[in-house]
Write a structure and sequence with these properties.
26% helix, alpha+beta, four-stranded antiparallel beta sheet, 2 helices, 90 residues
Length: 90
């Protein structure tokens, strides 16, 4: 999905685009409330939940300034590095 397609889909679904801090090539950064340096943690997470409620079950992570970066192809690395099933195991 291109950035323009995502913008159109979110607008059509009624998602408030002011909660989008940045559109990226393969993802989106959501942040809401707060001031110029940090977003409000609760408002940003509410934006993530609203985004996922639209059917976008994308994975991601929270930044140090309380925004969330979500990507359709995000894979969380789980497990202990010493476990052979871990992607970090060598």
């Amino acid at each position: 999905m291109t950035i323009n397609q995502l913008k159109k889909a979110l607008t059509k679904a009624g998602f408030d685009l002011s909660k989008v801090y940045a559109f990226e090539k393969n993802g989106i950064e959501l942040g809401a409330g707060g001031d110029e340096e940090r977003f409000d943690e609760d408002e940003s997470y509410a934006a993530v939940e609203e985004f996922r409620a639209l059917g976008y079950n994308w994975g991601g992570f929270k930044t140090g300034y309380n925004s969330w970066i979500l990507r359709a192809d995000y894979v969380a690395h789980e497990g202990d590095w010493n476990d052979t099933s871990s992607t970090h195991h060598y």
